């Protein structure tokens, strides 16, 4: 069977059960970050690695500073999904020898600028020649308080589903300029009990089913309520991917106070209720469009 027949989630389902976590691992696979206990620390250690690949996540003529920004921020967005604080990063760069030094210098300008935005220290990494496309890999470590960590698995039937910001528009280079919702996630978990959360890196059509599956629930989406980026259709908002917004589940009892408090704290960032989790999968359209799936398609 070829990878194109499996897709990313099915591939991971085949290879990850063979991993051997130790007693300090709380979450090894299946969430935005790995969560582990570290010695006698009162907080939980968060670990995450991610990468951007030429011709997949960025075009060959993309400004290297934007590539660096995206590579770092893409990884840090997963910390936002768990209400975590990133602190350290390692950079692995596999690059074609024909690239100019100036391209690498601009790449690191973007990496450093993105890391500084959240006070993340780049503490090392690795470089390698490659005969293929350029790959920029980021491995990051940080922490989250035990009572503020949010997993994908905690959703309840009838929970409201909210999304930050607007959806769609990655084709217009939005995916090169986003800022992870770390500050917003920290505010959310300091004021409300967030049951489940995920960042929308592969699109609502892929990431919402992931969250629902992790919580062993279904979902209902009101497509007319989706907060659309200018010029985007509801289907593009579901399928385009690379929004890097937060999708989270919260008790409907908090609906009005959440909307009111959010508007006071983040007046320039929309917060939209788009549906709810259900005990049984229930979709109001005959087919819910899919988001991005690695190995199945290309951006």
Structural topology:
Layout: H1 3-6, H2 8-15, E1 25-27, E2 34-36, E3 44-53, H3 64-81, E4 85-95, H4 101-117, E5 121-129, E6 135-144, E7 160-164, H5 182-191, E8 194-199, H6 204-214, E9 218-221, H7 234-239, E10 246-250, H8 255-265, E11 271-278
Parallel strand pairs: 4-5
Antiparallel strand pairs: 1-2, 2-3, 3-6, 4-6, 7-10, 7-11, 8-10, 9-11
CATH class of the largest domain: Alpha Beta
Radius of gyration: 19 Å
Q: What global shape is seen? A: globular
Give average pLDDT, whole number. 90
Count of helix runs: 8
Which sheet architecture does the biggest sheet show?
A: 6 strands, mixed
Task: State the distance separating the first and last CA atoms.
Answer: 23 Å
* SSE run: HHEEEHEHEEEHEHEHEHE
- The computed structural class is alpha+beta
Number of strands: 11
Could you name the ranges where pLDDT drops below 50 across 5 or more consecutive residues?
Answer: none
CATH superfamily of the largest domain: PurM-like, N-terminal domain
Strand content: 15-25%
Written overview of the protein:
With 299 residues, the chain is an alpha+beta fold. The protein has two domains: 3-144, PurM-like, N-terminal domain (60s Ribosomal Protein L30, Chain: A), CATH 3.30.1330.10; 152-278, PurM-like C-terminal domain (Phosphoribosyl-aminoimidazole Synthetase, Chain A, domain 2). The chain contains eight helices and eleven strands. The strands form two sheets. The protein has a six-stranded mixed β-sheet, with helices on one face. The protein has a five-stranded antiparallel β-sheet with strand order 8-10-7-11-9, with helices on both faces. The model has no long low-confidence stretch (mean pLDDT 90).
